[in-house]
Design goal:
single chain; 127 residues; alpha+beta; 4-stranded antiparallel sheet; 4 helices; elongated
């Protein structure tokens, strides 16, 4: 490497460099926040309220090899990893958010939520 000063360095500077300092800043505030005292994230919640999500109920899972999968036909029974009477999983976009039980409402299946998974518990399951 060359001992000559870099073209980006000041000719009069020594080889010592100072660490850059940055000011702390607060998130942006909106006019409504000053009046309500609520964080800006709560005020802007309306932006996402109409975003569609997929909700699914899962009664169980199993793993089989392709040979057995290809042998399935009408009347075949696939054993799942759950026992009868266990609550179903309620998933939103693939994330477990609750457990529930099957109900029938106006000749359609529905689910009655028996336990809602807390936000803290959902975060734990991600790790």
């Amino acid at each position: 490497m060359s001992e000559e000063p870099s073209e980006f360095m000041d000719e009069n500077s020594d080889d010592e460099m100072e660490a850059a300092t940055f000011e702390e800043f607060d998130p942006p505030y909106y006019e409504d926040e000053k009046h309500t005292g609520k964080p800006a994230e709560e005020i802007n919640m309306d932006i996402i309220l109409d975003v569609p999500v997929t909700i699914a109920m899962e009664i169980g899972r199993t793993q089989i090899n392709i040979r057995n999968l290809l042998q399935l036909n009408q009347g075949s029974v696939v054993e799942l990893d759950r026992f009868a009477g266990e609550p179903l999983d309620v998933l939103v976009n693939g994330t477990l958010i609750a457990h529930g039980e099957v109900v029938v409402v106006n000749d359609k299946f529905g689910i009655r939520l028996t336990e809602v998974i807390s936000a803290a518990e959902r975060v734990k399951r991600l790790a």
